Amino acid sequence: MLARPSRRSVTAILLGTLLCGGLLGTPPATAAAASAAGAASPTVTVPPAGGHGFPFLAAAEDLGSFGYTESEYFISGTATSYAKSGLWTSDGRWNVRASATAPYKSRLLVRRPVDPAKFNGTVVVEWLNVSGQLDLSPDYWFERDELLRQGYAWVGVSAQAVGVNGGLGEIKGLKGWDPARYGSLVHPGDAFAYDIFSQAGQALRTPDGPDPLGGLPVRTLLADGESQSAGFMTTYANAVQPVSGVYDGFMVHSNSAIAAPISGVLADTLRMPNPSRIRTDLPVPTFVVLTETDVPGAAIARQPDTDGVVHWELAGTAHGDQWAYDAGEATVRKSAGEAAPSADCAAGSAPFNDGPGHWAMNAALRHLADWARGGARPPSGQPLSTVLRDPATGLATGGVRLPDVTVPTRTLTGARDTTGSGVFCGLYGARDPWNGDTDAWDRHNDGDPSDPNFPPTPEPVLSRLYPTHTDYVDKVRTAARTSVDAGYLLPEDAAAIVAAAQDSGIGG
Questions:
Q1: pLDDT at residue number 5
Q2: Which of 21, 308, 361, 397 could form a disulfide linkage to 385, CB 3.0–4.6 angstroms apart?
């Protein structure tokens, strides 16, 4: 997400990003019953200090100012790989059989409240994303405010081989980055990543060795993955959760229509059901959140919401955006420096989308945590149009609509012109500040007469939309209240949005 990937890694990164013993196909059991039998308890150890003196992806921000501490642990044991059992179809009710075993040793990066009284009982376990050929934590950055203010513990898992062993990037995994710290790690390949992720959760519930959570009692364990990791999260929920029963809920953020292969072999994506929907018979909930960038590729996998599966499609958002970039840049550069992956956008291209993705993710996380503890199911979201845009504003129609799109001040899109740019650039969407001219509208429709927005019209003038500053603030306040009442926005975030409107010079 941040300095330039080598050109050799382009194909692997792009493909990765698009993933965005006996029969084990028994009906799903309760998490408590299945976890005892379905997931091994790995050995937990403390890593050596190493050459850098801090973990890879250590937070650059001062976690202590939030009452948090950060630590790292190794987990090791024997991992199982899985293979398909029976026919896999688009309904996601996938059975697996044990295929092979191999020794492994990987790591957990842990951020938790220092004061046990501030822990809310919920641990968010993120499958670290390796699309950039090294470990990244995009959902931590999207959900950061909610995590830290509400007392969650967060754990990043180096589940995939590239993060440990290295791939095509300049940094050859954890082992190459700091051999003194990580040289003892062993990853047998992504076929074993699913069970490694299960064992990571089990290590948090019943640690064999030092407790990664420092004695904090786990009430709810949520599995989380964004982009490529969301593809693995889809397969995990459908095929592995019924075996392991480790997790109490799933956040699937920005997956595509096809889930990751159970074999861990990228080419086997072609053997996966297309589309790959979320199974609806799990006893634990799954929350699927898609940005405007994701919907065109994922829409074929749409399914009705049920008591156990809910979807949101977010208008005016992008797969990666300005918020996530800013939240993660210092952390990634602290570890990776100039070797960090980058958006790599061409000079003079549109600025990144700075829309409401993080606000929606905060609300989704709180909903999921409550839902997993037996609370109410979150509200459903309307589908986002993959074609029609509002001709007056250039904004997408439909979907979950937060104040950034209901009281707009700029055009926010999930796509962008990537001419001359690198592979990540298109994931960051775009924003177009309104200046009252037609240039941006030309970019929206490329002068194509068949486009529903053709011919281009002058973009809105803010002083005409909002004759006074008070008028603008009142409209934002009303929109924020509406979003809170609908369940798509948290009250704390609504207050921040209104305060930002009050501090702006918009109107009049």
A1: 35
A2: 397
Q: Residue ranges per domain, the chain?
A: 7-271, 461-508
Q: Using a CB cutoff of 8 Å and minimum separation of 24, what contacts does 460-463 make?
A: 460/392, 460/393, 460/408, 460/434, 460/436, 461/434, 461/436, 462/409, 462/434, 462/506, 462/507, 463/507, 463/508
Among 316, 318, 313, 342, smallest CA distance to 329 is for 342
The DSSP code for 301 is G
To the nearest whole percent, how much of the chain has pLDDT over 90? 83
Alpha helices (runs of H) in 183-282, residue ranges in sequence order: 193-205, 228-235, 241-244
Tokens coding 454: 């053709």
| DSSP E strands, 177-298 | 220-226, 249-253, 286-291
pLDDT attached to residue 440:
46
**Number of Cβ within a 10 Å radius of residue 246:** 26
CA 449 to CA 314: how far, in whole Å? 28
In which band, very low, low, confident or very high, does the pLDDT at 436 lie, cut at 50, 70 and 90? low
The whole-number average pLDDT for the span 206-227 is 98
Residue 75's Cα: distance from chain center in Å? Answer: 23
Whether this model's pTM surpasses 0.85: yes
CB 109 within 8 Å of CB 156: yes
Q: What is the predicted pLDDT for the residue at 239?
A: 98
Here the tokens at position 260 are: 């990751």
Q: Which residue, 277, 248, 263, 236, is CA-closest to 82?
A: 263
Instruction: Say how far residue 486 (Cα) sits from the centre of its chain.
Output: 23
Average pLDDT over residues 195-211: 98
Quote the CA–CA distance of 11 and 9 in Å, as a whole number. 6
Cβ of 33: how many Cβ atoms within 10 Å? 10
Lowest mean pLDDT among 75-79, 305-309, 453-457: 453-457
Q: Which residue has the tokens 């790591």?
A: 107
CA distance 205 to 221: 8
**Residue 355 Cα distances to 37, 277, 291, 428, angstroms:** 44, 27, 10, 11
Is the confidence at residue 455, as pLDDT, over 90?
no
35: which 2 tokens? 């976890």
Confidence of residue 446 (pLDDT cuts 50, 70, 90): very low
Cβ-contact 488, 366 below 8 angstroms: no
Q: Which residues 6+ apart lie within 8 Å of 283 measured at CB?
A: 28, 29, 30, 31, 308
Give the number of other CB atoms < 10 A from CB of residue 236.
29
Give residue-wise pLDDT tens across range 263-289.
999 999 999 999 999 999 999 999 999
Q: pLDDT band at 169, cuts 50/70/90? A: confident
Where helices occur in 350-413 by DSSP H, the ranges are: 357-372, 403-406
